Amino acid sequence: MKYFQADKYENLHMGLKSAPNLIRQKATFGTELSDHAYDLTRILVGMQDTFEMEEFQEMRQAALVALVASAPEVVVPYLIDVYFTGDLSLQQQLIILSALGLGARELAGLEKKVRPSPFDFGRTDPKEIPSPQLLPLALHRQYVSPMDRLSRDLETMMIEPIREEAVAKISGPRVLQVRRFSRIPPEKRGFRGHVNRLFNLAGKVFIFPFLGRWWMHQQDLYF
Q1: What are the structural domain ranges in the chain?
Q2: What is the 3-state secondary structure (H, E, C) of the chain?
Q3: What is the distance between the alpha carbons of residues 56 and 119, in angstroms, rounded to a whole number?
Q4: For position 8, what pLDDT does the model report?
Q5: For the segment 8-34, what is each residue's pLDDT rounded down to a tens digit?
Q6: N-terminal to C-terminal alpha carbon distance within the chain
Q7: Reduced to 3 DSSP states, what percent helix, strand and coil does the chain have, rounded to the nearest 5?
Q8: How distant, in Å, are the alpha carbons of 49, 101, 127, 151, 203 from that of 163?
Q9: CATH class of the 9-222 domain in this structure
Q10: What is the CA radius of gyration of the chain?
Q11: Model pLDDT, residue 124
């Protein structure tokens, strides 16, 4: 934590660069991460690029994603609360949303290589998103396109278990279903087994707290 509050370029850069891997490693050892996750998240959200550091935003984003994925019960409620109640810039708000989305992807077990970065200038054509309220082209490529892809991925993750349950009910008891076995190994069929840690956290940690805060925010605006 002291590296995040350092007044020297080298110390701050080292802290940001090593943070993601260190956070994930500490997640499996005792309570050290959970004890400090809140303060780390608070510091990262409010951190300013005083040194005009190259890839500063990317490194800060990566650290926040690691915190969301490693200590969601501590980090996610804080991020949701500060998003609706904090005096944040547009960039800080977008970083929070991106961290929540990317962290949720990691919890769901999705491969890292398919994660869109909010600071990766994508090639998505703004015309593909039918909205009359688009940001300027550069900002759209930087933020809207990745967030649009994240929302589609999260929607798929939430709907898929429901779809499978419905199919199971229609198909009847599992003992009556006819299974087809393939001689092609799973790895050659593109199948990658993974643990979906998001399944038990999506509602109570991500969705319902976010909706609850959003509703309170709307009440404060109009009543």
Answers
A1: 9-222
A2: CCCCCCCCHHHHHHHHHHHHHHHHHHCCCCCHHHHHHHHHHHHHHHCCCCCCCCCHHHHHHHHHHHHHHHCHHHHHHHHHHHHHHCCCCHHHHHHHHHHHHHHHHHHCCCCHHHCCCCCCCCCCCHHHCCCCCCCCHHHHHHHHHHHHHHHHHHHHHHHHHHHHHHHHHHHCCHHHCCCCCCCCCHHHHCCCCCCCCCCCCHHHHHHHHHHHHHHHHHHHHHC
A3: 10
A4: 87
A5: 899 999 999 999 999 999 998 889 999
A6: 41
A7: 65, 0, 35
A8: 45, 22, 31, 18, 17
A9: mainly alpha
A10: 20
A11: 44
Evaluate whether 194 touches 110 at the Cβ level (below 8 Å): yes
- Which residue in 100, 138, 104 sits closest to 121, CA to CA? 138
Tokens of 203: 């509602």
